[in-house]
Specification:
Distance between the termini: 38 Å
Strand order of the largest sheet: 3-2-1-4-5-7-6
Structural class: alpha/beta
Helix content: 25-40%
Length: 273
């Protein structure tokens, strides 16, 4: 099986505002734990690949004197620049580029992070290039979080049914390449990293209870690659009404409770001389 699955480059076009507002932040405990294990010097450089609107770059910025936030979608990097200006983080540099095409010198970064995106990249190529970009002893962290439509609760299963129905109705089922998850099962991320030279150091998990409102879920779904605003288009109000009808019966005090699982997988580059 070919382990390289190709995602269209424009899947997130037009989602940046929703991504920034409705994607859940990585928990403070996870960010602190990652920083402790990676042990940056406080004088080095961070690379956030496929950064979205900076969900990792911003909470990690105080451990570094230089931060590269790299994202292929121009709308995302526009948000990163605006956020950096708003918080006075002049050391955050937004770069509009595919991770596979980034021009970076060898040994330039103490930590590289990839949030909820490694599966969308050319994993073998990015792992190989990331290995060369790290300083000796530097780390790569693959960061993940679960999605609200994946889970055992009745409302999560109802949400999954609504999403599948609308994907079929709008002809959007093919936006995500078929078999993308099977490719990772066949060739797991840790094996891809190991072949690139990394020492895979372990997975660290954190859970947070979150209480969604239905409008928040509607916004979160618009931040995805499978039902973004460009796909919902004139059907957006009908989709929202369907969400309210199907999920409203499951709410308690207007909320839907989820246990969100966050995790990062840490890998170390070459040992210091």
């Amino acid at each position: 099986m070919d382990s390289q699955v190709r995602f269209d480059p424009d899947l997130y076009q037009g989602t940046a505002g929703y991504y920034e507002q409705f994607r859940l932040p990585y928990p403070d405990a996870m960010i602190a734990d990652l920083a402790r294990r990676a042990a940056p010097s406080g004088r080095g450089r961070l690379l956030d690949l496929a950064c979205g609107t900076g969900q990792l770059a911003f909470p990690l910025r105080d451990w570094f004197t230089d931060v590269w936030a790299v994202e292929a979608e121009p709308g995302m990097t526009e948000v990163v620049r605006a956020k950096a200006d708003a918080v006075g983080a002049a050391h955050i540099r937004a770069v509009t580029a595919r991770a596979e095409d980034l021009a970076a010198e060898p040994g330039g970064f103490e930590l590289i992070v990839i949030g909820n995106a490694f599966h969308r990249l050319n994993r073998a190529l990015v792992a190989q290039r990331a290995y060369t970009w790290l300083k000796p002893g530097g780390c790569l962290a693959l960061c993940w979080s679960t999605s609200p439509w994946v889970g055992p609760r009745d409302w999560q299963q109802a949400l999954d049914r609504v999403l599948r129905s609308w994907q079929n109705t709008l002809g959007a089922s093919g936006r995500i390449p078929p078999g993308w998850d099977r490719a990772r099962q066949h060739d797991p991320d840790h094996e891809v990293l190991s072949r690139a030279g990394f020492d895979v150091a372990g997975r660290h998990e954190f859970s947070v209870e979150y209480h969604w409102t239905i409008p928040e879920l509607a916004g979160h779904i618009r931040s995805t690659s499978f039902l973004p605003p460009s796909v919902l288009a004139d059907h957006a109000s009908g989709f929202d009404a369907d969400l309210i009808a199907e999920l409203g019966r499951h709410t308690a005090n207007g909320r839907l409770t989820e246990t969100v699982d966050f995790a990062y997988e840490l890998a170390r580059g070459s040992a210091p001389a």
